[in-house]
Amino acid sequence: MGQGRVRVVRLGLIGVGAWGRRYLETIRRREDCQILAFARASARPADGNGDGPPEVRQCDNWQDLVGLAERGGLDGGVVASTPSVQAEVAQAGVSAAVPLLVEKPLGFSAEVCRELLRQVQARPARVQQSEERIGARE
Question: 98 Cβ partners below 8 Å, 6+ apart?
Answer without folding.
Answer: 66, 69, 70, 74, 76, 77, 125
